[in-house]
Amino acid sequence: MVDELLVELHLLSHQQGFQPDALFASGLVQVFDAFSRGYRPEAQREPLFAALCSATGFDAASLRGQRDAAVAAVGQHALEEVQGWIREGGGGAPEPIASALAAVRRPGFHYSRLLAVGLLSLLQSARGAEAMEPQALREAAHGLAESMGLMRDRVDKDLSLYAGNLEKMAQAVELMEETVAAERRRRERQLQPEPQAPEAAVSDAPEAVPPAG
Known about the structure:
The protein has helices at residues 2-13, 22-35, 45-55, 60-74, 79-87, 97-103, 113-125, 134-147, 152-191. It has 213 residues and is mostly helical. The chain has one domain (2-170). It is elongated.
């Protein structure tokens, strides 16, 4: 996961038409957080994100800040309202979302799959989104991406691949946690003392002497 993001961020940093806005930041943070779940030690996740960004010329703290601001802004509004902002190219939306949505229509705009994931992430943050099935929410993102001027086929492919990889990662993390738990139980059993066999009872009574024949 880190290697793929490293390559993608390196390529984006050299694209003249690319700008790291709130939509990109939301997608990057979403992808990193989702695919680093289960990383141990947990305390090293954020330094890993910072190193990933620094190595490709991005500011991790700034991107986290943009993402948090966007999620906070969206979380105060209903899903239908957020969808309206997107259809209107950012019209009526609060910052930093308005600028990010408007930037999609600027000349020389460069598309990234992280933008598609960012769009989905913002929809997931809106009020009422939790009542929708994940597939329905992705389909809504597909339609909105087309209204933004993005290539629907490209967005469909990127979000489907993201959802598939997310499912595989969740299964891998679950398997890893089960394996670790099983190993822990095995070690605990090994540390337990072996039960000792009970000693044979010894009778103090004299042996019976058979009668003389």
